[in-house]
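Sequence only, no structure available. Ideas?
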Amino acid sequence: MDTILPAELVAAARRVVDANRAAGRRVTLAESCTGGLVAAALTEIPGSSDVLEAGFVTYSNDAKVALVRVSNDVLETFGAVSVATAWSMAQGALEASGADVAVAITGVAGPGGGSEKKPVGTVVFARAEKGGDPAKVVADLRHFGDLGRGGIRLQAALCALELLLPPEEAVDEPVAESP
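Reply:
I predicted one. Tokens follow.
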């Protein structure tokens, strides 16, 4: 297959497209540190339009507020790289797109921008589903370490694709109780 993306990313995207097509599910994304990489991987797969509804690249806090309705209070209280922000991004993308499932990604890809509490390589993911209980937050915080900007973004994209799989296909489903 003719692609500029890593083979493992394209293989994961193919699995997501095939599984969601079989389940009759439409997906959407709210991406920050991955900058549209997950949507790009999905669109490498012929027929991905059967599955991908929309992708929001909400890199700045202003874009998070305007496009997927993350509140300024959440951003000011918890920061852009937090479970609360990722959960809000996922909920907002789900509502804005009308898809069946949304995954959000926000993190610190580096090489700068990290802090003691949120070092480079910290990435937060959240998934929201149509008709899901908004009190049940499905989120995960990962510390990939300083793999370099490209390495962190690749690992984040692979994790996000895993979260887009229907429950019967997913390997691991992290759950947090509240943002």
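The two ends are 40 Å apart (CA to CA).
Hope that gets you unstuck.
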